[in-house]
Design brief:
This protein is α/β, with parallel strands linked by helices. It has seven helices and five strands; from the N terminus they run E-H-H-E-H-H-E-H-H-E-H-E. Helix 7 links the parallel strand 4 and strand 5.
Amino acid sequence: MVSKRLKATGKGGGTLVLDARSLSRQVDGDTGMRARIKAAELNGRRVALSALTPLEVRRSEQAGRRLAFLLARFDVRPVDKAVLHTAGRLLGTTGLDGHEYLVDAVVVATTALCLPPVRLVTSDRSHIPTPTAAARELPQQPEIGLITV
């Protein structure tokens, strides 16, 4: 199966992908996260996330409205056949359990299919590094840079 690349807008500066914790920080108004996203956008990077990520960050009331605003602004990527195929390869290559690592594998697969250079913003030091390292070994996948917050 041939993987498809996601297109960036702007100056072609690549993609900044948010996991659940980094999106949550943005929703909560974390100044460091806001600055990181603003810098990415100023440099022409698309800010993207998996369609599964908002489900992990679900909010209500004012925070829910802020989340909805951000989701309208960011590139929410569907979990399509290319993402499922790549996530399956990551789980298979690493031997990780799909029950425990499914969402992480989908987030990393989404990242791997974005227009390079790609950076994944995460606070996860236990689950995300393993599938990210495995993604580097897949043919025709970009180097995924991890930004730990």
